[in-house]
TrEMBL record:
Gene3D superfamilies attached to this UniProt entry: alpha/beta hydrolase, TolB, C-terminal domain
Record keyword Hydrolase present: yes
Keywords: Hydrolase
PANTHER family to which the protein is assigned, alphabetical: DIPEPTIDYL PEPTIDASE FAMILY MEMBER 6, SERINE PEPTIDASE S9 FAMILY MEMBER
Lineage: Bacteria, Bacillati, Bacillota, Bacilli, Lactobacillales
InterPro entries membership: 6-blade_b-propeller_TolB-like, AB_hydrolase_fold, Peptidase_S9_cat
Domain named Peptidase S9 prolyl oligopeptidase catalytic: residues: 440-650
Keyword Hydrolase carried by entry: yes
Signal peptide limits: none
Organism: Levilactobacillus tangyuanensis
Annotated protein name in UniProt: S9 family peptidase
SUPFAM superfamilies reported for this sequence: alpha/beta-Hydrolases, DPP6 N-terminal domain-like
Amino acid sequence: MSQGVSAEDLFKLKALSQPVAANDHIYYVENGVDQVSNGYTATIKAVDALGAVQTIGTNGTLNLQPATVGDDVYYTATVGQAKPQLYRVSKGQEPECLTKNANEAVNTVIAAASGQTVYFKTTETAEQPKLPSPQDFPATRHVTRLINKADGYGWLPQDVTYRLRRFTPATGMVEQLFAQGYDFDLTSVSADGQAVTYISDEQPLNDRNFNRAVNYLDVTTGETVSLTGSLKQGRFTDATISPDGRHVALVGDDGAFGRHTVADLFMADTISGDLERLTGDLDADLVPDFAGDFEQHASGKLVRWLDANHYVFTAAYHGRSQLYSGQINGQPKLLNDDARQIIDFAVMDAQTLALVVSYQDLPSELVRFSLTVGAEEPLVNPNAAYESTHEYAHPHRFDFQATDGQQLEGWYLPARTTAPKQPVLLYVHGGPHANYGETFFYEFQVHASRGFGVVFFNPRGSTSYGQAFENNVIGHYGADDYQDVITGLDAALAKYPRLDATRQYIAGGSYGGFMTLWAIGHTTRFAAAIAQRPVTNWISLFGTSDIGFYFEPEELDADLFSKEGLASYWQQSPLAYAEQVTTPVRLLHGEWDMRCPIGQSEEYFTAIKRNGVEADFIRYPQSFHGVSRDGLPSLRVQRIDDMTAWFVAHPSARN
């Protein structure tokens, strides 16, 4: 029997991203995890038409954002302790550093199709973001803005400059296009290099306005116009200029339902300024949010052009990626609906794409996809050698029905065991506006290898099922969503007799941590529970989370300071039901978490411990909210071990 996935295999598995097609090659990033340095790596490689792979950029720990001009490859590299800089590697030569400003970090690199210019964004600040402050004599921090910290980063810099720069290969000159004190996302460059699109806050000094506008900069005149000004609450994620410069394809939403509004494709005319929504009838989300733990450094490109009249984009639908194409004056058509996630994609020519895909039982693969016939050819599987001696657990997808008739879907990942019965682990995703689906989940594979049958569902509130489905949880946390996951668990137990109903466990992180604690406050069916980085008290979260003051009024459908706010927040808090808990529970929380600060677990632990419940609380140092996704690798492994130990120590429920 082949080996299953062990926790330590995190250091063996690879993930691909950021494909770029040029010169009869596909350049891409191979992402890995290094056990010795306890950090992450990224290497730029290329595969040719015959399938031969060569390494392009390895001079930095993280080599990212490949862009090509002729035979030269431009990219960012993080070398030693220095901030990322722009590098160029020519055929047969050593990498050359093109920027040498120690205070500026290069973030994004895009080359014009003409090859005459390379644009890149930089961020300059001398402030240290991480916690705790590393200075021997730290200075005080004077906080004046509502938005003053960000999970995964730390305290936001108060003295920072964001720049758009341009490199001209013919002259070697680096010049500045603009500099500003607020952030922006560089998203595309016109084919002739004379225009760029970038996305930025519409009112950057207003911490209660979250509109994200698409800006079109004519580099020759210096004039900037907003392409999305007609949408007063628009929030955009991507924008791409057509090859002839006449149109810009945009992905975003009109903000009709706040920050959980389902995204659409829009088309802007650069001459008339007209803006048209193209996918209003498409019941899919063009900004995917897969609840996986394996994707690294995806490009974020959601729409690309095949030629001046045809475009291609991906969307999330019922837990999987769909691939669409369309033309300027026509409706998009579905090209591919396979059960997988399309992590990244690039245009090779008007009939061919390069796709980076992931399946529940295949971590990462680069394939060539034909738009004309819909067939594809595998090009690179970075885990082929690993898979010759290991086997992944293979999922079973199933449908079930909620008590009110709502159709739902879930998955069962069988334990790799010959035992006639296997304990069942119900896992709840975060968000709640995210979705489980057809993508590799390293942690689930480890649990399956350790003998647990993992079941997971997309309850109401999840993405990829349309706006009404996503809206359902608003103002009703712990209602239909709770019933959905419990009903799904019952459906799995009935459908798969190898699952042991006497050994039921529940776990989840963030919103999944909320649901874990909500569940044990309303049922005693679980032998043990593990809540990771949970929300336990909406009242205290409001002013301590990096997003609390604006996330909660939308999600709970009331402001904390409104007449009904306090009662509503408490009623929807797991802490309110702590005295009903008898299930043994372990709390896992990162000490640097700014999304759901560690005080959330501290409050809950105190409440149940004083009530005599068997509980413990593990604090993960130097860890933000995403400790299980991109945290310190050693702690990612430790966290799974901590989960297994807790479940094994509690073999049956104490009803």
